């Protein structure tokens, strides 16, 4: 066991855990942050997608060791000042069916829109291709990303 200190959703946290323990299990089982979902455990489904230092990443395959001084943001930390425009667009487009993959989908969409303010359909499909939705809401996900892009460009939304 070792002590690991990092920033989680804007707050410094200190956890005791083995160096090689998956950050996903630290988040869920140690810190009680359950937005990132366990889907596959090998980084291919995207259900746990969160941000590490502003970039999308998969906590299920990232060990807690080596996070010192780094910043992790999960879906819980996304809209600290209210709904983030991507969350708002998700609701307006009625994207979610079962909702299991949605935190990861939203975090991937936020990362995309940070890099590309006006993504094409091809850009969206490429950026989101590693996030699996078993309900098949891909058309609504694309529509929500386009709506969120408009909201972000207009300055709307609280996040």
Automatic annotation (TrEMBL):
Residues 2-78 form the 2Fe-2S ferredoxin-type domain. GO terms for molecular function: 2 iron, 2 sulfur cluster binding; isoquinoline 1-oxidoreductase activity; metal ion binding. This is Isoquinoline 1-oxidoreductase, alpha subunit. It comes from Myxococcus xanthus (strain DK1622). It comes from the Bacteria. It is an enzyme of class 1 (oxidoreductase). Keywords: 2Fe-2S, Iron, Iron-sulfur, Metal-binding, Oxidoreductase. Pfam families: Fer2 (PF00111), Fer2_2 (PF01799). Its EC number is 1.3.99.16.
């Amino acid at each position: 066991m070792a002590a690991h200190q990092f920033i989680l959703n804007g707050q410094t946290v200190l956890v005791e855990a083995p160096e090689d323990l998956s950050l996903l299990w630290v988040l869920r089982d140690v810190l009680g942050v359950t937005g990132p979902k366990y889907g596959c455990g090998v980084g291919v489904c995207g259900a746990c997608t969160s941000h590490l230092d502003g970039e999308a990443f998969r906590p299920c395959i990232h060990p807690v060791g080596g996070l010192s001084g780094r910043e992790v943001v999960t879906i819980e930390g996304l809209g600290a000042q209210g709904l983030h425009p991507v969350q708002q667009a998700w609701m307006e487009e009625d994207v979610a069916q079962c909702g299991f993959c949605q935190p990861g989908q939203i975090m991937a969409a936020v990362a995309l829109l940070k890099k590309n303010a006006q993504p094409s359909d091809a850009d969206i499909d490429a950026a989101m291709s590693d996030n699996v939705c078993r309900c098949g809401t891909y058309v609504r996900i694309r529509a929500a990303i386009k709506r969120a892009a408009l909201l972000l460009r207009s300055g709307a939304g609280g996040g």
